[in-house]
Design a protein that fits this description.
about 150 residues, alpha+beta, four-stranded mixed β-sheet, 5 helices, 4 strands, about 10% strand, globular
Length: about 150
C-alpha cells in the first residue's frame, strides 16, 4: 500500500505473506508470533533487499520507495479496508493506520520499519549496515518473501 501523498518521499505499508516469512525462518518458526517473525533478521533482510533492488530500478523521486512498514494485522473488512471481493481500499488503510504512516516519516511508534540499504539503520528502521547473523535468523543469502 503506497503512502506519501503530499510528502517529500514515497513510503509503503506492507501486508507480508506470513507463510513466506515463516519459510524464510525455517521449521521452528511456527511457534513465533507475527511480530517475532517480522523481527527476525532473515525476514528484515529479505524486505530490505527487495526494497533496495526496487530502488535500483525505480530511481525517480516519485517512484522510489524510501521505507516500508511491516503490518502485523491483515486488512480488515470490518474497518472497510477490504471489500467483499477482496480489493484493498487504500484510503481506509491509510486513514485507519495513520499512526503507522506517521512513523514512516519520523514519528515514534511500535511498527517495524524497513529502509533501503543506504547505510547504518536509524532508530526502528533496518537496512544495510546490520550484520547477518550465523543462520539462526541471519540474512545469509535469503530470498525475499513474495
Amino acid at each position: 500500500m503506497i503512502a506519501g501523498h503530499e510528502r517529500d518521499e514515497v513510503t509503503a505499508l506492507a501486508f507480508p505473506a506470513i507463510g513466506a516469512c515463516r519459510a524464510l525462518c525455517g521449521p521452528n518458526s511456527e511457534v513465533l508470533s507475527v511480530r517475532e517473525l517480522f523481527e527476525r533478521d532473515v525476514v528484515r533482510a529479505a524486505f530490505c533487499e527487495r526494497l533496495t533492488s526496487f530502488a535500483q530500478v525505480n530511481t525517480g523521486h516519485s517512484t522510489r520507495v524510501a521505507r516500508l512498514i511491516l503490518l502485523e494485522d491483515p486488512p480488515s473488512i470490518d474497518a472497510q479496508e477490504t471489500t467483499d471481493k477482496g480489493s484493498v481500499n487504500q484510503k481506509s488503510v491509510l486513514t485507519n493506520r495513520a499512526a503507522l504512516v506517521a512513523q514512516l516519516y519520523g514519528a515514534g511508534g511500535p511498527g517495524i520499519v524497513i529502509s533501503r540499504a543506504t547505510g547504518a539503520p536509524a532508530g526502528a528502521a533496518w537496512g544495510a549496515g546490520v550484520p547477518a547473523s550465523d543462520g539462526a535468523g541471519g540474512a545469509g543469502g535469503a530470498k525475499p518473501p513474495g
